[in-house]
Amino acid sequence: MKGAALHSWRSREIMATLSLRNVTKYYEKSMKPAVSDFNLEIRDKEFVVFVGPSGCGKSTTLRMIAGLEEITDGEIYIGDTLVNHVEPKNRDIAMVFQNYALYPHMTVYNNIAYGLKLKRIPGKKIRLFGREIQCMRHYTKQEIREKVEQAARILEISEYLDRKPKHLSGGQRQRVAIGRAIVRHPKAFLMDEPLSNLDAKLRNQMRAEIILLRKRIDATFIYVTHDQTEAMTLGDRIVIMKDGVVQQVGTPAEVFNRPKNLFVAGFIGAPQMNFFEAKLEKDENGFAVMLLGERFPLNEKMNAILREKNISAQDVILGVRPEHITLSEKANHPALEASLHVCEMMGSELHLHLLLGKKEIIVRVPTLGLTDAEIDGYSDSRAFRLTFVPEAMHLFDCETQENLLY
Ligand code: ADP
After folding, report:
1. What was the pLDDT predicted at 14?
2. Distance 195 CA to ligand 1 centre (A)
């Protein structure tokens, strides 16, 4: 990227905080709300990702921020301005959709320039009848050219400016769509599943490009995806939604390490966290989890949290991530006997699908340092002994599904 382009972006001093306060959306009064009591403060230049399964209200929330959807209740602020009734075109934000929506008959240059040609900006001030009047004008051809070329340099598509979209790859088209948004120098970028039409390899590449783009243009981003990997890799903070309700807001590390409830625990992380019906027990030594006749004691920190929350012995759902289960060799460790169901060789790791009683669970085993014979040995093995350290255990209330250790 050229230094001049970078400088010009960084020199803009636009504060783009966004605030959603008790935002609710009903498409039909008789139905459940599509979005319910959504609260979030987005910092200037923050990259926030809305993630959740299809239909959980991500796009609706994004569209309400853009002004494309009316809100039923609550308030949305961009900076200090209440924008509930501000027209989309006056909100100074740009939206990038999954179906790039490029004009097929126009060149890349004209696709990017199109919005600028229509835009009116403050021009000369004149005095009329003793009053100062602000005139509006269009960008000049030269100004448009500079902006388009600058965006093209940032996105590294300068050499395609004369091509039509049909002569571009999916990734290049997506960059043109982003280019069309960035020439407008919006306060914030809203992106709705921008990579979902790309194949897996290109999606990984574009994900890295979005991380770079974000560093270059230093704006506020709100990004919608159903893909937890995309959310984890892109977001400064992630908002996890289900059925129109925010489940947790946190950094990728927070939502991964300290999921607030069973839904978040299952949604974040791949392969998914393993869940077991277990019992939380308490004796004079403190709390322990009983699972299939084995006793797994909790550590001091976990004991302190449970004591502080006044939690007593109860049925729980125990959650353990596939990478946090260890294959135990020591006979004196609490360990569970499991039989091999399927062994998947993923390259850098094995995914062992094991049967623990009737339940199938997944264990990840790194292959680094293993010989080929040792790797093959896993798929020939019939039985394994599993164990986990206290730090690997997540405990959820069976009824509320809340994380007891949160
Ligand atoms: P997501 O983006 O998470 O897939 P949406 O925000 O698109 O979810 O949808 C949330 C809910 O609102 C879904 O139940 C969906 O069926 C409903 N919905 C979305 N758009 C409309 C609409 N225009 N009219 C009626 N219901 C809608």
Report:
1. 60
2. 20
